């Protein structure tokens, strides 16, 4: 007799859990609190849906920041190339862009969502929209169904919790799954915004809001220990900094931010000696120009003015009058522009949630709870996350697929 499986949450993980459970022979009911499935999916990749990454297995694992080994079984059931094949077979042609990021050829996230929903309906999944689960039903030490917020109880042989994290709460990710996990006695690690901007203690980045920098190096230190060093792109915001380098860094920072300091190297290709030679050459060729115009040859004008202000160097000072000490201050700020972190960006702007149901509570081979058999957890509700580039969506797809298959094939 076919098992009855309930999936809570119709996002990336929930849709794959439902699809794989149904294809494994289960009778599946998918509960989604919103008016449509995949609401967060529609806004990923700026509406284009960076659904996975086409890198090789070893590289994929290196991009997972927390608990990468936990994903071995999930990726064995559905890895990134399997996901690409699945979407192509569902009629969504894909393309690979810079950084091995994978998008639908149409650049429309809605194509991904519609294809998955059509596959669910074809597989016979009972989709119930505007239906919010309140709690898991437990009987004789096993999960036996779901209680809805309206008080109704839905019995099941297994329940898969795919409620997401707490980032982008407007999409329905408000921590329901974490609450259910805690109520079932499972540990939930601290929840923090992940892949988000950083608010700085200094006000001057706000004066440069909108300025984007390329080919710069960003380093972060916690006390004396360097915890991050990467080269790439970043930008200044009204409250601090953001951009690809910063998003990744935000997911690596410790909870205690008071000991964190940042350093921006605006000229990573030049060492101090080469940079000094460059400065001397500019001064020698343009002795009557102001130091402000000399800075324009080294970095964007507004940033150059900020560096002069931080170095307490008059912008109108003739280049020929610049002192050795002033030149050293300019070099120092170009190679080590310091910032402090006041706070992470909010959950409203964070791409993902860092933290979640502790993987120690979950069997990685099936994604079933060790404390409450019959309850499975998949997707962002788990304490597993990665850098940007399609990796987090793939984690959701892979864990959803494993949970769905496991729940459908579990022994009663």
Care to describe what's here?
It is a single chain. By secondary structure, this protein is α+β, with helices and mostly antiparallel strands. The protein folds into two domains: 4-192 and 353-409, FAD/NAD(P)-binding domain (3-Layer(bba) Sandwich), CATH 3.50.50; 197-345, no CATH class. The chain is built from 13 helices and 21 strands. The chain has helices at 12-23, 57-62, 72-77, 80-89, 109-122, 176-183, 204-207, 244-250, 272-285, 291-296, 301-310, 324-335, 391-409, and strands at 4-8, 27-31, 52-53, 64-66, 94-96, 101-104, 126-128, 133-139, 142-148, 153-155, 158-161, 192-194, 198-200, 212-222, 225-236, 240-242, 260-265, 337-344, 352-354, 375-377, 385-386. A six-stranded antiparallel beta barrel has the order 13-16-15-14-17-18. It has a five-stranded parallel beta sheet with strand order 7-2-1-11-20, with helices on one face. The protein has a three-stranded antiparallel beta sheet with strand order 3-6-5. The mean pLDDT is 95.
Describe the structure in brief:
The protein has helices at 12-23, 57-62, 72-77, 80-89, 109-122, 176-183, 204-207, 244-250, 272-285, 291-296, 301-310, 324-335, 391-409, and strands at 4-8, 27-31, 52-53, 64-66, 94-96, 101-104, 126-128, 133-139, 142-148, 153-155, 158-161, 192-194, 198-200, 212-222, 225-236, 240-242, 260-265, 337-344, 352-354, 375-377, 385-386. It has 412 residues and is of the alpha+beta class. The strands form 6 sheets. Strands 13-16-15-14-17-18 form a 6-stranded antiparallel beta barrel. It has a 5-stranded parallel β-sheet with strand order 7-2-1-11-20, with helices on one face. A 3-stranded antiparallel β-sheet has the order 3-6-5.
